[in-house]
Every structure is written in C-alpha cells, then in structure tokens.
Amino acid sequence: MPPNRAWADHATSSLGAAGYRGGAARAAVVEYLATQSCCRTAIEIHSAVGGSRSVGLASVYRALDVLTQLRLVQRVEVGDGVARFEPAVPGGEHHHHLVCDDCGKVEAFEDPGLEQALGKVAASTGYALDGHEVLLRGACGNCR
After folding, report:
1. What domains can be seen in the chain, in order of their start residue?
2. Which residues pair with 53 in a beta bridge?
3. If you compute the radius of gyration of the chain from its CA atoms, what whole number of angstroms results?
C-alpha cells in the first residue's frame, strides 16, 4: 500500500520545521516516493523525476540524504550494493522485504505474527525497540 498524500504532507512539513526551504528536487522525490508501495533506488527515482523537471542525479542523492537524516525515509540495504529508499510512515506502519538472489527482484511482505514475535524478543531481552528491519533472501518463484 503506497504511503500516499499523508506521508508527503508530513515529509514536507517536517522539512520546513527542520529549516529546509522548498526545493524542486526534494519536492519531486517526496511526491514520487508517496506513490510507491516499496523501496526504490536513487537511479529509479531519478529516472522517474529527472526527465521532465530537469532534476539531476546528484540532487536526488542530496534529497535522499536529507530525508534519511530526518528519518522521513528508510534506507534499505538489500545486498545488491545499491541502497534503496522508501517512506518511513508516521505511526510505524511498515513492511519487510523478500529479495531474490538470482534476478534481484524485491518484494514487500507483512506478517503480524512476525511483528508479535519481534515484540516478544524485545520484551524478553529488555530492549525498547525504535524500529527493525527484516530482509529474507532466496529464490523467487520464477527463478526456483
């Protein structure tokens, strides 16, 4: 499920509150990410926003750095040597990722039982979790 307009509005107001003026590249990256249901590379983001608005790749990287520092996007390392980015939705709603080691496909998944298990681990170890990432690797249905 894409984060939608609520996330984009939250990101825009958080950027303003942090002292960042409106910039075309940041706005384009925020608007694009708000329409996505899973993580994207900076190259994919640039391909989507760079053409018609003449937003450079370096500007996309700078925007992603700022959004990551402000915890508005999550940087996802899927092991292909390229970082991917997705909105960090206020309230903690999130998903995890499956990665195909053969073709590189990345898919999102949600599992309430897994979330409960992670909560139990935190409680039994005395940790107060701020967040977590789960990345499962293997071969997708097409590559098996």
Report:
1. 4-87 (1.10.10.10), 96-138 (3.30.1490.190)
2. none
3. 16
Beta strands 73-77 and 135-138 are unpaired
80-114 confidence digits (pLDDT tens): 788 999 998 877 778 888 989 888 888 889 888 99
**Spatial distance between the Cα atoms of 20 and 66, rounded to a whole number of angstroms:** 9
User: What is the spatial distance between Cα 89 and Cα 3, in angstroms, rounded to a whole number?
Assistant: 7
The whole-number pLDDT of residue 1 equals 47
Q: What is the DSSP letter of 131?
A: -
CA–CA separation, 98 vs 51, rounded Å?
30
Helix (H, G, I), strand (E, B) or coil at 137: strand
What totals of helices (H) and strands (E) does the chain contain, helices first? 5, 6
For residue 2, the number of C-alpha atoms closer than 13 Å in the C-beta half-sphere is 12
* pTM for this prediction: 0.81
Q: Are 7 and 90 in contact (CB under 8 A)?
A: yes
Residue 96 DSSP symbol: E
